[in-house]
Amino acid sequence: MKKIIAYVIFQVFLAAIVIPVSIFYGPFTNIRNTLVTTAMTTFSHKYIATLFLPQSKIDAIMKEMSSISTDSSKSSLLNFKNNHDTTIEVNDISSSKFKGKVILIHDPTRVQVGISSKLPKEGETVSEIAKENGAIAAINAGGFIGYVDGAWTGNGGTPGGIIIHNGKLIYNNAYSKDGKIDLAGFTSDGKLLVGKYTLDEIKNLDIKEAVSFGPALVVNGKPMIKSGDGGWGIAPRTAIGQKADGTVIFLVIDGRAISSVGATLKDVQNIMLDYGAVNATNLDGGSSTTMYYKGKVINNPSNPLGERMVPTIFYAK
């Protein structure tokens, strides 16, 4: 029995060495690159990559995999006739590695930003914010700063970037070296703008509802990821887009589960293109990814405690 136990321990120990070495230094470059980008874009699991690879190699992989075009960094305003169709559709999506849901909102003027009533102390769940606003459909929206004073708070109380609601700049925590902000915003007539804008540009664009997040994935009908997978690895995803007829696309993809491991940014881009998105952008994903419809959450959030507290949502009444 002792020999059997010793043999099992030895095999486990051997596998713990051989498998990582095979992944990081063997011929499986696609698996390695995806694993590195997934690890490096999470808060607490970077060690999975740094333990086996030098920083110079990690940087090279991140650069290779995150080839996102900036040729068209701003979307143009669509020209569509809004018939104020009240239809809202819910569709399931799936592939060999993920499952998710799409909500199609045919009247884009129904889409607004919902804000946690507890800011700046903490966020609320998507369900809470949706119910407070009488929403029919909702997804999580902007991100938040979770690492404050050397500790991970993670309570959604400090939004990242800007929040605009009813045409007013409610919150501004935006910072970038070039002064440009990743925008997911709707004009007063329901036209979605995505990409990088300065605050002055945003103020002059008749933006009624907006949050900050990115990157933009589809701009003026063109995919922004030309090579690689977007450089963010595989994870739960949330995104928003708009079709040429004005229909707004809410998208969530579940992740971090056997039944649905998650998606790359390129996966999200391709789904948006399949649904006819002319403009689309990534929103906060990971443990925040949540979709709400008619009083309940209809996806499977990866947060161990259920819905995560977030600062903002996009919703439709």
Write the layout of secondary structure elements.
Elements: H1 2-25, H2 29-40, H3 47-50, H4 55-65, E1 88-94, E2 99-105, E3 111-115, H5 126-132, E4 137-140, E5 147-148, E6 151-152, E7 161-165, E8 168-173, E9 180-187, E10 192-198, H6 199-203, E11 207-212, E12 216-219, E13 222-223, E14 237-243, E15 248-253, H7 265-274, E16 277-283, E17 291-293, E18 296-297, E19 312-316
Helix pairs in contact: 2-4
Please explain how this structure is put together:
This protein is an alpha+beta fold and 317 residues long. The chain has 2 domains: 2-65, no CATH class; 88-316, no CATH class. Helix content is 23%, strand content 30%. The chain contains 7 helices and 19 strands. It has helices spanning 2-25, 29-40, 47-50, 55-65, 126-132, 199-203, 265-274; strands spanning 88-94, 99-105, 111-115, 137-140, 147-148, 151-152, 161-165, 168-173, 180-187, 192-198, 207-212, 216-219, 222-223, 237-243, 248-253, 277-283, 291-293, 296-297, 312-316. The strands form 4 sheets. Strands 1-2-15-14-16-12-13 form a 7-stranded antiparallel β-sheet, covered by helices on one side. A 5-stranded antiparallel β-sheet has the order 3-19-4-17-18, covered by helices on one side. Strand 17 (291-293) and strand 18 (296-297) form a beta hairpin. The termini are far apart.
